[in-house]
Protein 1
Amino acid sequence: MLQATNGLEALLQVKRHHPEAVVIDVHMPRLGGLDALPRIRKFDPATHIVVVTGRAQEVGEEALARGAHAVLGKPIVLPDLQRALGLEAPAASPPPAAAPAPAPAVTGARVLIVDDDEGVRTIFEEFLAAKGYRTRSVPDGAAALRAVVTDAADVMLLDIDMPGLSGVDALVALRAVAPELIVIMVSGTVSQELARRALDNGAFDYVVKPVDLPRLAEVIETALLLKGR
């Protein structure tokens, strides 16, 4: 059995493992169940989707229109869930099976790394190149602006704390010259104010150094997935 804590994680699980059925809540952080529904359908039209919600009467018709097979109100009653999933009765637990191998990350996407620390740039480039991404890097915000104008990128990792043009200031200009660019902010400090400003100005997400590289790869894959790559 697979689990996800929000709609974006649910999309990644469906993309990687193609489960036969998905039970999804309407209200989740990052991406709600109603918005996730058509995307799950796009990945695998055969997936059996059951939506659960505390407002079944309000959102039930919309959920069915977006591809749900059934809508259940909370609190969930186990027999109702079993019927919605096409299960007559609880089956005996089968022997544990080997977990399916994850699907490869989105390969070939172009990632531009912007950081004044050469060591950080090298770590990101080597890690993402090994994941199949095409990477290049520049040391500051002004160079980042020139780079996206001359050679477009799909994703940018943009350091916030840089001399000269800061990452947040560069982000505003980047949104103007490259509106389709996915920007993930990287910072050496935890600051809710900086995170809010970055997200308000169009950043997709915000990560803090030292960066959890597997988590970063998941953020990039999710961003590309939502963009339709």
Protein 2
Amino acid sequence: MKLFYRILAALLLLNLLPAAFAKHAPNFDLKDLSGAPHRLADLRGSIVVFNFWATWCGPCRAELPMLTSLSREYRAKNVRFIAASADAPKTRDKIGPFLSENGITLDVWVGADLDMLEHAGLGNVLPGTLIIDDQGDVVARIMGQAREEDIRQPLDWLLSGKSGTPPQPLTKRY
């Protein structure tokens, strides 16, 4: 009987872990490449993959094509992919050419910085990614260059109504 209660307690704990690590996403105010303002909170109702990157960051440059591919796959499932550039104003003119040369079709917002990254619970090293549910809660954080499964597993979990094994609340890839 003791074993039964231990297993039951473990199962309950596993089901509560995502809620314990869920935290409302910060409401970042950024602009798109044309200068139009955007707020992260405006995306509520959609699942969001919010990626911090910069043109000068090698792992970021390697990661963005994978995120673009996933965004095409998940677009019809109400999943938004946002690439928040941490390029300084003096290097923002490199963003457009980089996106064109590499076939990056993600929504790109500018004005991010390392303080925002840290405020999001991602440390202060690029790249960093948040997976945010449709209510605005962070369900997964990826510090460093994400692998496809780091993005796919939390998205599939959210799209399945949060059934099955919950995603790791924090994944470090550096």
